[in-house]
Amino acid sequence: MTALLGKDSLVRSGAGHPPDSGAATPAGAATRRLVNGSVHSWQLSTGAYGPGTRFTVLLAGCPLTCLYCHNPEALRTRNGRRASADELVEEAARHRTLIAADGGGATVSGGEPLLQPVFTGELLHRFKYELGYHTVLDTSGFLGARAGNALLRDVDLVLLDIKSWRRDTYRRVTGRDLIPTVAFARRLARLGNEVRVRFVLVPGLTDAEENVTGIARFAASLGNVTGVDVIPYHPARTSGGEAIVRARPLRHTSAPTEEQVATARAVFTAHGLNAT
Questions:
Q1: Which end of the chain is more exposed for a tag (fewer CB within 10 A), N or C?
Q2: What angle do CA 188, 145, 122 make, to 5 degrees?
Q3: What is the DSSP string of 42-89?
């Protein structure tokens, strides 16, 4: 697997809606562009990154520093390998039979894929129009302003990670502010993009009733959220490396019990959402 850096360094984050030409090739045509990016790895997976078997590209670089990050080595774009969109599309095409067998597709994840919006847009566009794959964008939404409308038209499903509803908890968890994610979620609702919310349940950190209820109420208000994944925090999924671990602040935190997970899911269900 190879990848990184390229024209994305020229793309700036901005408020509001970026122009359609800013982040992806025009929707509806299988164009070819010479675009490179920083890639941590790629994998074939089932269930974790969208429906069916998926060719998932994990891009390098993320603006968040999540306390429970399970992949801190992917935090920096410089830690990735340089790859071209051509290379990844060719690799994805090799798995067409397996992917088609159970209605899978391709996912661009990370890291944070919108840290490299041009590369992400090109991959999504070509996965969709050259290979005919169902496409998923897996993002925290913090850099949602970098996603042009053309990029979002090439996305069949957005996996939106909402780490917390309380702003103080969100900042504690990620080192960043919640507001850009909220703005991006509302924009996706206006555009009609299908969204599946993902929420990591961490005992003593994100499991407060008001926190879970806040996310549930917000997600239910959008009208385009088709499901919620309540993901139990698991200490074994975190790893060392980078400053992200921050002296392992969750080293004494246990995974939530089945009852705690069920309680959180029940909150989302009570708001009319399909929670798993």
A1: C
A2: 85
A3: EEEEESSSSSSEEEEEEES--S---TT-S-GGGS-GGGSEEEEHHHHH
| CA–CA separation, 36 and 9 (whole Å) | 11
Domain that holds residue 241: 7-270
Answer yes or no: is 2 within a domain. no
Q: Domain count of the chain?
A: 1
For 129, residues 6+ apart whose C-beta sits below 8 A from its C-beta are 28, 29, 30, 154
Listed residue (170, 178, 175) closest to 246, CA to CA: 175
| 275 within domain boundaries | no
The one-letter amino acid at 174 = T
Q: Is 33 helix (H, G, I), strand (E, B) or coil?
A: coil
Answer yes or no: is 149 within a domain.
yes
Is 224 a residue whose pLDDT tops 90? yes
Quickly state the pLDDT bin for 29 (edges 50, 70, 90).
low
Distances (CA, A) of 106 to 14, 17, 160, 274: 27, 25, 16, 23
24 phi and psi angles, rounded to 5 deg: -150, 160
CATH number reported for the structural domain that contains residue 174 in this entry: 3.20.20.70
pTM above 0.90, yes or no: no
- Which residues partner with 55 through β-bridges? 44, 106
Which pLDDT score, from 0 to 100, does residue 15 have?
Answer: 32
DSSP line for 109-160? ESS-GGGSHHHHHHHHHHHHHTS--EEEEEE-STTGGGS-HHHHHT-SEEEE
Q: Read off the DSSP letter of residue 18.
A: P
All residues at 6 or more sequence positions from 263 whose CB lies less than 8 Å from its CB, including other chains: none
Tokens 């509302």 -> residue: 186
Among candidate residues 116, 13, 35, the one with its CA nearest the CA of residue 83: 35
